[in-house]
From TrEMBL:
SUPFAM superfamilies: AF0104/ALDC/Ptd012-like. Residues 15-150 form the PPC domain. InterPro entries: PPC_dom (IPR005175). PANTHER family: DNA-BINDING PROTEIN (PTHR34988:SF1), PROTEIN, PUTATIVE-RELATED (PTHR34988). This is PPC domain-containing protein. It comes from Pocillopora meandrina.
Length: 152
């Protein structure tokens, strides 16, 4: 059984290349910032979100029309929402996408820009690929910082 209250590290099996970390964020904490600080503190080289459940009071999301020639459409999500999905990598400044559900079950999602504040809780499990390192570097084709995976 995983004890998320103590934010302890759990290895899946001896010799495994995956380590897991569990933490619980509290009301008012900003999710993206907390996760990025956590992986820096733990010195994780290839971190990603395995699971996240909880709720938020707000979030800033970039919608799916981003390109080099098109300005990013950014929206401010206000009000209480359930986190129905949070996925992505946490290397460098991270690349997270979220789906949030309102009181009527309507879902909105996009690239997490920040300002994603916990309402009651956010229970997060982070995985780390022990044999890889993740970085984000400018990709000439897309013009964006993209994931680069290297073996250790």
């Amino acid at each position: 059984m995983v004890d998320v209250r103590n934010n302890k590290r759990f290895r899946s099996e001896p010799g495994s290349t995956l380590s897991c970390y569990a933490l619980r964020l509290k009301p008012g904490q900003e999710i993206r910032e907390c996760l990025l600080n956590y992986v820096k503190t733990k010195k994780l080289g290839a971190p990603f979100v395995l699971s996240c459940v909880g709720s938020v009071t707000q979030a800033t999301l970039r919608l799916a029309n981003a390109s080099i020639d098109t300005p990013n459409e950014i929206i401010e999500v206000k009000g209480r929402h359930e986190i129905v999905s949070l996925v992505g990598t946490l290397a460098d400044e991270g690349h997270l996408h979220a789906s949030l559900s309102d009181k009527d079950g309507n879902v909105i999602g996009g690239h997490v820009m920040g300002n994603m504040k916990v309402f009651t809780t956010a229970e997060v499990v982070i995985g780390n690929c022990d044999t890889f390192s993740f970085t984000r570097e400018i990709d000439d084709e897309t013009g964006f910082e993209e994931l680069v995976v290297r073996e250790k």
